[in-house]
């Protein structure tokens, strides 16, 4: 700017090179401003991905909880009129379609919610489709879903506590879980199922 | 020298302008796509919540009194077609993109019949039920209300109360059977709801008893319902011994076969199985006996971005491909599958 003023007042001979330096300065300033704005766009994109992940993990957990609820846990009345407890102890929900080679509503080992235990873990792709079951996640897995079946201590023969955990594989890889610790972004759902003789 | 400076300055200006224009284009695309992605996600969330809330209530029965408990113990409550409303489909039809379900509304009344019907177009005379004085058993029913009358054999009719006195209800149409107290016939208030895809508007629609659909979700390109069933023959409704129904012989022997499980301990019912009989009930209230086996519903929903300018060419990512070539400039369809196991369908 000063060069331009001098050019108007005194002619071109005394401002050689100044225009280039000023232009480079302006360019550097622009680069700094632009680079400080760039993370905002990245942040918006990340927020959208996180929101989608949370929606999908919630949906995946809720659906598994409903699948567990669909397993037989009831009393059937025999031909003699006696109430017989019937329980599904064989359905394997970790594969699609479910098979009869699993554990059903049998009480699960104590650490199935934070460790990959066959029969209690499933890996899914970015659209929530089944990719594989434990213990090792397939490379393309984006979500993991684990569940636990625990007889209620006060009423173990009649009531089961069902817990489902769903999380992204990114969160899984970020840090090993210690015990029942919940990480931000994990979705945990808990429900109970009871059978009565009536 | 001046010319050289001018050229350098021009070059720098052009480079800067190009960089700024490129950045602005990316920013513009991002600001155009992000709201659409967020909106699609929001539709997914609201759609899942709306469907799950409604489907979990399927088969809810009266909350109190002698008839309390699941309605699925008495009548079928899930049908693979539109039913019980204007625009209903044939009672033995089956389609995977619509579902009708019954439930008793909260506070719904269960009132037993006091006298057998002598004519299918006669009034239903009511006995004393919960929540009403003995002299006015119909105190919680009103003209215009949708009601269900059923008996222990599973025979049932849905009708609108044309008129209600203190002791009787006059249906708006002839009933399909002569209901009576011998088979524990009773009347309950009923919510009839159908959900289905309207391909013309790409809307998931909800129909009530009036038959007027209201949109539940926009830009839906796929809606599918799979019916997961108990392979064992339905144990309910169980008529008194000596009464033969479409489900059991007079000696209690089931008429339906045991199906082979192909979904864990459950089995998937095909459209053919849902319409091939044996048919129960009569007239417009006939139903395929297999619907009484249903224990869970597996729903698939596919939603797309509203504008074709946000959809790409890939038929895998887009049910209705758009015109955008660059994948990063698109909002792919969201496909989700969820299972709902209504507690009232767990009838053994």
What features would you describe in this structure?
The complex is a heterodimer of chains A (198) and B (348). With 198 residues, chain A is an alpha+beta fold. Chain A is built from 3 helices and 7 strands. Chain A is elongated, with a radius of gyration of 30 Å. Chain B is 16% helix and 25% strand. Chain B is built from 1 helix and 17 strands. In chain B, the strands form 4 sheets. Chain B has a 6-stranded antiparallel beta sheet, with no helix packed on it. A 5-stranded antiparallel beta sheet of chain B has the order 1-2-9-10-11, covered by helices on one side. In chain B, strands 13-12-16-17 form a 4-stranded antiparallel beta sheet, covered by helices on one side. The mean pLDDT of chain B is 87. The interface between A and B is large, with 47 and 45 residues.
Secondary-structure map with pairings?
The complex is a heterodimer of chains A (198) and B (348).
Chain A: H1 2-10, H2 18-69, E1 73-77, E2 83-87, E3 121-124, E4 130-133, E5 143-151, E6 159-168, H3 169-174, E7 187-194
Antiparallel strand pairs in A: 1-2, 3-4, 3-5, 5-6, 6-7
Chain B: H1 2-56, E1 78-79, E2 98-103, E3 110-112, E4 124-125, E5 146-150, E6 156-164, E7 168-171, E8 186-189, E9 191-198, E10 203-207, E11 213-217, E12 220-229, E13 267-269, E14 279-280, E15 287-288, E16 294-303, E17 334-340
Antiparallel strand pairs in B: 1-2, 2-9, 3-8, 4-7, 5-6, 5-8, 6-7, 9-10, 10-11, 12-13, 12-16, 14-15, 16-17
Assembly state here?
Answer: heterodimer
In spatial order, strands of the major sheet of chain A run 4-3-5-6-7
Low-pLDDT residue spans of chain A = none
- How far the N terminus sits from the C terminus of chain A, by CA atoms, comes to 92 Å
Please give the alpha-carbon distance between the first and last residues of chain B.
96 Å
Task: Classify the beta-strand content of chain B into a percent band.
Answer: 25-35%
How are the strands ordered across the major sheet of chain B?
3-8-5-6-7-4
User: Would you report the number of β strands of chain B?
Assistant: 17
Order of helices and strands of chain B: HEEEEEEEEEEEEEEEEE
Which of globular, elongated, flat, extended, rod-shaped describes the shape of chain B? elongated
Question: What is the arithmetic mean of pLDDT of chain B?
Answer: 87
Computed CA radius of gyration of chain B, to the nearest angstrom: 28 Å
